[in-house]
Amino acid sequence: MTSYQQEKTFNKVYQQWIQPLYRYAYYQTKDKQSAEDLVQEAFTKYWHKMSDIGEGKEKSYLYKSIKNIWLNKIEHQKVVMKFETATKRLSQVHSPEYLLEMKEFKAKLNLAISNLPEGQREVFLMNRIEGLKYREIAERLKISQKAVEKRMSQALLHLRKIHRKI
Amino acid sequence: MEENKEHIIAKWLEGTVTDAELNTLYDADMSHDLKLIQDATENLEVPKFNSQTLLNKIKADLAPNKTAEVSYLKYWVIVIAAILVSVLAYTSMMSQAIVIDNNTKTYALHSLPDGSSVHLNANTHIEYDKDFAVNRTISLDGEAFFEVQKGETFTVHTDNGDVTVLGTSFNVFSRGYNLTVTCKTGKVKVDTGAENILSPGDQLIYMKNQLLDTSSIDTRNIASWREGESIFKSSPLSEVIQAITAQYEYDLKEANLDLTQRFTGSFIHDDIDKALRMVFLPMGISYKLDTQNKIILIQ
Fold first, then answer.
1. pLDDT at A57 over 70
2. How many folded domains does chain A comprise?
3. Residues in chain B closer than 8 A to A90 (CB atoms)
4. Is B94 near chain A, with CB under 8 Å?
5. What value does the mean pLDDT of chain A take?
6. Which domains does chain B have, with CATH numbers?
7. In a 10 Å sphere around its CB, with 0-12 CB exposed, 13-18 middle and 19+ buried, how is residue A66 labelled?
8. Percent share of chain B, pLDDT over 70
9. Considering the domain boundaries, does residue A77 fall inside one?
10. Widest distance between CA atoms in chain A
11. CATH no. for residue A123?
12. Among partner residues A4, A35, A94, which is closest to B99 by beta-carbon distance?
């Protein structure tokens, strides 16, 4: 392809996937600046490999690339994620006891999620933050749907343990 | 089996398993806790970040030696100033060409390496080589007003013909098969197979490489689009329609419209209803506006 076409394709892929890929990078790094660096590196690698990647394969290539680049980096110290919450009202009315319990749990949420093992954490967040169905998560990460369900369940049990202080 | 027992938790969250089914394998505490986790993580978001800034950074790192500057001039008549507009200006990462796309509905100003400037109207694309200072050739698709520094021959190449000058200012409109060149100062040569020379105030109108008309334009009206209004003198309707659709990013559908009719007048850039009235009313053309699908339908 001509370099003009290559740039057009690159821009298109970038605009289409930058947000979910940035989120995925954040799930790995737990830190905003590292996530941006990671995404930058992945897209730079992608640019150099573009002619080898078939149409429609960019998505899984980029997800994998982010994961691999991150794994190759030196072990990082304990980082805690800082989620933001969109202020929305809950669809149902809850009892004061329930609301209090949820408040207590939310206070531990950032730390709890940050401490989840990587595989569980990324699946959990792709589902909770982005609303992705298990099948779509499986497709993006190139693992089986059963594997996604297993990680999801484990994440939920893990969080439950933290909440119950078991 | 332990595996199946676990998977039901994930399935419950997705909604493919009911509360009743969950309760057959786990106690009441489990469904309570899962609901709690579900509610607590309902509105999580990652920290925001600016994807455009990062894209610029990626490109800058891939080609550290080349940068194209784009500066904006916003005129108060351009109502769309309220909306953030972006001009996509990027340097080609591997090849030598510099490409400027004004994919917005407003006007952008770009400086060329030789000190000349190009004013780009809505949806206009230009391209030139890294060695521009030595070989002043620039490709244009759309509409631009050029202010050319004195020097070596300066050539604007379009699909409809080439425009050559030494040091001058002029407007080039090239969209579809329409080419209109207007000279403001200096001398301009237009080559569409045949050559023509323009002096200040001269306007040449071409259609499919054929010269349709020459006229005299008040030089103050040249490139009036920079002030938010496109002015035409005896221009073929095809050209006016090209200009409107590019400005407002609408499509136009017609069946029996005589596109060779001439229009003298103008249309403004910030109100499509008014703009269409300004053009079609004096010409007695009926139309319908489909704002949802962005179509102008000629009746």
1. yes
2. 2
3. 39, 42
4. yes
5. 87
6. 2-40 (no CATH), 53-224 (2.60.120.1440), 227-298 (3.55.50.30)
7. buried
8. 87
9. no
10. 64
11. 1.10.10.10
12. A4
Query: Taking residues B171-182, what's their average pLDDT?
Result: 91
Range of the domain at A40: 3-71
Measured on CA atoms in the order A47, A48, A54, A58, is the torsion positive or negative?
A: negative
**Is A86 inside a domain boundary?**
no
Q: Can you give the length of chain B in residues?
A: 299
Residue with tokens 């600046």: A33
| A89 CB-contact burial (10 Å; exposed 0-12 / middle 13-18 / buried 19+) | exposed
Please give the structure tokens belonging to residue B182.
Answer: 């207007």
- Which residue in the set B13, B42, B88 is minimally distant from A156, CB to CB? B13
How many other β-carbons are positioned within 10 Å of the β-carbon of residue A106? Answer: 17
Contact A159 B90 (CB under 8 A): no
Task: State the smallest CA–CA distance between residue A22 and chain B in angstroms.
Answer: 9
**Residue of B41, B61, B87 to mutate when probing chain A, most A C-beta within 10 A:** B41
Q: Which residue has the higher pLDDT, A163 or A165?
A: A163
- Measured CA to CA, the distance from residue A100 to residue B239 in angstroms comes to 67
The residue of A46, A127, A153 whose CB has the most chain B CBs within 10 angstroms, and thus the best one to mutate to test that interface, is: A153
A interface test, pick of B52, B58, B62, B86 with most A CB neighbours within 10 Å = B58
Could you tell me if A50 and A7 lie in one domain?
A: yes
pLDDT of B87 > 50? The answer is no
Residue A31 has a CB neighbour count (10 Å cut-off) of 18
Length of chain A: 166
CA–CA separation, B163 and B181 (whole Å): 8
Confidence of residue A3 (pLDDT cuts 50, 70, 90): low
Contact: B44, A129; criterion CB under 8 Å: yes
Q: Are B127 and B110 in contact (CB under 8 A)?
A: no
Establish if B2 touches chain A: CB-CB under 8 angstroms: no
What is this structure's pTM? Answer: 0.48
Give pLDDT, residue A87. Answer: 60
Structure tokens at A42: 């992945």
A149 and A101 fall within a common domain:
yes
ipTM, interface predicted TM-score of the complex: 0.79
Listed in sequence order, the DSSP H helices in chain B are 2-14, 19-25, 28-40, 51-62, 237-248, 272-283
CA distance B188 to B168: 7
Least confident of A42-46, B103-107, B111-115: B103-107
Give the H or E element holding residue B169. Answer: strand B169-175
CA distance B161 to A77: 63
For the cut 80, the answer to whether the pLDDT of residue B122 exceeds it is yes
Tokens of B281: 């009313």
The phi and psi torsions of B265 (rounded to 5 degrees) equal 155, -155
